[in-house]
Prior knowledge:
Layout: E1 8-15, H1 22-32, E2 36-48, E3 51-57, H2 60-71, E4 76-81, H3 87-98, E5 105-107, H4 125-132, E6 138-139, H5 143-149, H6 156-166, E7 170-173, E8 183-189, E9 192-199, H7 209-222, H8 227-243, H9 263-266
Parallel strand pairs: 1-2, 1-4, 4-5, 5-6, 6-7
Antiparallel strand pairs: 2-3, 7-8, 8-9
The chain binds pyridoxal-5'-phosphate.
Amino acid sequence: MTAGTPPVVLIFAGSDPTGGAGIAADCLTLASLGCHPAPVVTAVTAQDTTGIKQFACVETELVIAQARAVLEDMPVAAFKIGMLGNTATVSAVASIIEDYPDIPLVVDPVQLSDRDDALAEEPLDDALRTLLLPRATLATPNSREARALAPGADTLDACAQELMSLGCEYVLITGTHEPTPQVVNRLYGHRRLLETFTFERLPGDYHGSGCTLASACAGALAHGLEPIEAVREALHYTWNTLKHGLRLGMGQYLPDRIYWGGGPVARRKPDEK
Length: 273
Ligand code: PLP
């Protein structure tokens, strides 16, 4: 990387026209954290802030061509995987990533939207378990995703152990969906619970929080932070984007990925010159 240039993070994700989740969320997050996002589109969704209307997966060959074009042109410092949409794309992405074993990989194993709409043509648990999670530096399932990916496990600790036994180096299980007064996020690595990060539970209903968190983790890793520090930074950043969430449509709040500023033009009030 040339001194002074931002680290490039290659994203595999679906598009979301609200800008709340998916590629727009990843790009905003990564730009906000001083990275250059390189977005490979895996699927196109039609949705608003109340739910998914429809989606279509991009042809696997075109997903591969997008990724190869970037990888042959730019020094990629981290990968971030979000919506993949079908088994063929999981398999294609896994085969690309296999060629770059030294690049950190963050996997957000998303198959459902936060409103429980499908974001995949078929269940992807087996493909994720066998093809992508073994190569992940960090997986960021929420507690529901962790249980789905580790169906034999009876506790979240056991889910994390199972995911690590597949080869996943670190597992961050987020606690938003758990019935606890505060949100407790658990980071596992080296076969044990490393740290719990507890946050005030915010009252809103948010769209794109998981994408924001996983991208922020990838951005922090791309900057060279150690995984534990990367996760700590990413969780604090994400919580702040939610605390400053914006209700731009009629449904869920969207995280404000540039809550910290964004410059005088971007943040000028309508009556200001
Ligand atoms: N990717 C896309 C394209 C989506 O539409 C969604 C949710 O609707 C997600 C990922 C996951 O969103 P979240 O960050 O809320 O888990």
